[in-house]
């Protein structure tokens, strides 16, 4: 984690790199490197003891050429304007890669939610929803969960918005609980897209995912679902980890049993079927067929990248490789499925949730999974087409080229106003 870049500058350089392959003017590219607008607001909230506290919050609406802004809201003490802005830009390109009709947005509140009671978090969330109300709506900007927010916060935002607007509009926000208009399949969607994309990558290489050995960093929502689904396809999940460390068994783990152990004890460490325990760094350098980073951003830096031995990496986490690690691995024989495709299942099923909310007609889990499969497979094919056409080094470059071309097309077709 030695070379952490300013995320907004990283985003801008990714756009510049992709633009070199496209027949697009600098003036249009300049537009795609800056947010359309960023709301910065100060929320004054009453605490349980009757005192008041001020919290800073942001909502960045990066680009809406392809549809309403879409992206999560995070609660974290390290939230900054630059981080929120960069994340909103990545949402533009993620939605464009999977070709769903959304632009990109992101929001955040500078807060450590563990220091506040549930009722304080509810008042804070409702205060933010009140500020956001003029800017959001099912045709304008549709927030979703992110770090330290979930169904509970989404339900509060929906309720605040609907109360103030005197309407019912569940599509104003996604990631809701099922009884509040959520979608079947949403919880599993990120791990599912990670594995669908990995299967496509193995096919592309003329190999079979069912014969693969797999290591997974992080055993939370994305990591454990990926473990379960890849095991169901016949692969051997030989190593998994969480913040407590990594466990290894050359014959493969029973993913559900590891999850039951983690639910009981809080960690994967100490699981009885492990032959060996080691560090997260050792897990990331294991000689496996498939590596799935599903924990934190910047998990693999340039030094560690030198030792990565996996053949395929499917990025469940956002930004698990530093830009320098990416450069190292681009010269190695490893196929990396970029986060903006591999973990796009989450936003894709959010799109399905919004579609169902608008239709007031709800789909079965089978239908959700079938539609998701088609979208991720089409996304992977678009990437490999661009990869071959431009003779690129990485699928990440391909993803940005495909995404930026799609955003540029919709901008140019619409023309500039005024
Ligand atoms: P989560 O909080 O459910 O799980 C995170 C896991 O990572 C936990 O098991 C935690 O113990 C582990 N972890 C934390 N620090 C670690 C470390 N230093 N080494 C190893 N493991 C560590 O989170 P999640 O929802 O599974 O998200 C994981 C990643 O996937 C994040 O980067 C997130 O942005 C990305 N993502 C998630 C979704 C989603 O729908 N859940 C969608 C898109 C992207």
Question: Would you write up a description of this structure?
Answer:
- Helix content is 44%, strand content 17%.
- It is globular and about 55 Å long.
- The chain has a 7-stranded mixed β-sheet with strand order 9-8-7-6-10-11-12.
- By secondary structure, it is an alpha/beta fold.
- Bound molecules: nicotinamide-adenine-dinucleotide (NAD).
- Nicotinamide-adenine-dinucleotide binds next to helix 7 and strand 7.
- Residues 190, 217-223, 241-243, 280, 294-296, 316-318, 343, 346 line the site of nicotinamide-adenine-dinucleotide.
Question: How are the SSEs placed, and which strands pair?
Answer:
Blueprint: H1 7-19, H2 26-31, E1 37-46, E2 52-63, E3 69-76, H3 81-97, E4 104-110, H4 118-132, E5 141-145, H5 151-165, H6 189-204, E6 213-217, H7 221-232, E7 236-242, E8 245-248, H8 255-265, E9 276-278, H9 280-284, E10 290-293, H10 302-305, E11 312-314, H11 323-330, E12 335-337, H12 339-342, H13 345-359, H14 365-389, H15 395-414
Parallel strand pairs: 3-4, 3-5, 6-7, 6-10, 10-11, 11-12
Antiparallel strand pairs: 1-2, 2-4, 7-8, 8-9
Bound molecules: nicotinamide-adenine-dinucleotide.
The site of nicotinamide-adenine-dinucleotide has 20 residues, from α7 and β7.
């Amino acid at each position: 984690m030695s070379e952490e870049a300013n995320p907004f500058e990283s985003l801008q350089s990714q756009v510049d790199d992709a633009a070199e392959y496209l027949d697009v003017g600098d003036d249009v590219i300049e537009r795609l490197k800056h947010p359309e607008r960023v709301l910065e607001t100060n929320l004054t909230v009453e605490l349980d003891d009757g005192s008041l506290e001020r919290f800073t919050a942001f909502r960045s609406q990066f680009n809406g050429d392809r549809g309403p802004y879409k992206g999560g809201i995070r609660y974290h003490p390290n939230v900054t304007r630059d981080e929120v802005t960069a994340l909103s830009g990545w949402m533009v390109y993620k939605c464009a890669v999977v070709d769903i009709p959304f632009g990109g947005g992101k929001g955040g509140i500078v807060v450590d939610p563990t220091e506040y009671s549930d009722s304080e978090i509810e008042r804070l969330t409702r205060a933010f929803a009140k500020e956001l109300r003029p800017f959001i709506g099912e045709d304008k900007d549709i927030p979703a969960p992110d770090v330290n927010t979930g169904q509970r916060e989404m339900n509060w935002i929906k309720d605040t918005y609907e109360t103030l607007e005197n309407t019912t509009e569940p599509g104003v926000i996604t990631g809701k609980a099922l009884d509040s208009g959520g979608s079947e399949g949403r919880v599993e969607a990120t791990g599912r897209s990670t594995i669908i994309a990995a299967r496509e990558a193995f096919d592309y290489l003329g190999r079979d995912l069912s014969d693969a050995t797999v290591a997974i960093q992080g055993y939370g929502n994305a990591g454990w679902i990926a473990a379960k689904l890849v095991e169901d396809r016949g692969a051997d999940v030989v190593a998994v980890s969480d913040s407590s460390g990594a466990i290894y068994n050359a014959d493969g783990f029973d993913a559900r049993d590891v999850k039951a152990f983690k639910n009981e004890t809080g960690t994967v460490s100490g699981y009885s079927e492990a032959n060996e325990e080691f560090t997260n760094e050792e897990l990331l350098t294991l000689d496996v067929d498939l590596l799935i980073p599903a924990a934190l951003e910047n998990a693999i830096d340039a030094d560690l990248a030198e030792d990565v031995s996996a053949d395929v990496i499917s990025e469940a986490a956002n930004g698990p490789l530093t830009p320098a690690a990416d450069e190292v691995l681009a010269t190695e024989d490893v196929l990396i499925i970029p986060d903006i495709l591999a973990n796009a299942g989450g936003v894709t099923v959010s799109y399905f949730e919004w579609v169902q909310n608008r239709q007031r007609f709800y789909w079965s889990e089978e239908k959700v999974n079938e539609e998701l499969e088609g979208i991720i497979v089409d996304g992977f094919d678009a990437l490999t087409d661009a990869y071959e056409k431009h003779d690129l080094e990485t699928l990440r470059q391909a993803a940005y080229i495909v995404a930026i071309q799609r955003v540029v097309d919709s901008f140019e077709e619409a023309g500039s106003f005024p």
